[in-house]
Sequence to fold (358 residues):
Amino acid sequence: MLRITLSIITKNEEAKIKRCLDSANVIVDEIILVDTGSTDNTKQIAIECGAKVYDFPWTGSFADARNYSLEQATGDWILVLDADEYLAPGSADAIKEFISGPPAIGRISQLSNYLDNGEIRYESVPISRLFPKGVYYTGSIHEQVVSDLPHRMTSVTVYHDGYFETDKTGRNIPLLEKELQKDGNNPYLLMQLAREHKNKQDYVQADYFFSQAYLYATKLEGYYPKLVVEYLYNLMKIGKLDTGYTVIQAEQNQDQLSNFPDFHFALGMFYMDYVLSNTAAHIDKLPRIEASFHKCLELGDRKEFGGIIGAGSFLAAYNLGVFYEVIGDHKKAVEYYHFSAEHDYQKAKERLSSLING
Fold:
């Protein structure tokens, strides 16, 4: 019988640690919790939940703490979670199914909530968190697993709310800057630093790091589609639409991007801004708005790629509704608002009600 160890590192997580451990207790045989200096009740709560708790002085590296926790594990398989995550219902069966197969690095869907212009949005990110004992981590921050095993997608989902209305940039930026001193052309680190500045709404500084990440990327990276999409959104934020148009022209036929709903969603949003920025000069790009959102619906939400929940469904349909309403085709606007509203999207319900009631 294969045994599973939950590996987790913490510091001052008393508000969330019980939720995390309770969600995993139904599937794991052992909980290894490594604490890096809590001054609250995190460790006591973990002990009450059945965890084996170890202290580990913080070294400035998440990989060091992760690897120490992996050294304490006795299970055949390791499940890694953070304190601000918890397993979705049904994950236990999905984990059992995956570990019964050949050894591999299991990628799970991390579903995070965040605020976007006052709306709560959800983003799915595939992350490597389920693997046989013997795998280890590298990297001070945004640490990555090191293994020759193949990476395979699982049907496991974890909910994550660690970045919802919180600010971790003060912790993350110095760690990323330190890593970049060792490898200043690393596109992954550059992208992560760009994202941290974007989260601070320092879009100009984010632009510098996004542009550097885009420059040094080989286009073969698994995160490359996400890099291009986030770079485009940041360019929109600072009004560098000509640069954005150049990026789109270079990337629109890339295989990695052509099947990524979020890329086409970003194109639809970009062309809205592009046409409005100079309608006389760019009016010929108007059909690209419609085509981009239709492509999103054609692809649908693609869990294996991650991305914004709804980019391939209700959000794309809502924006098509807006497009058709603006050009005066109210019949089509109602059709797509109705599609979006059926997915319980509140803004679509409001627009649909407004149009139907005249």
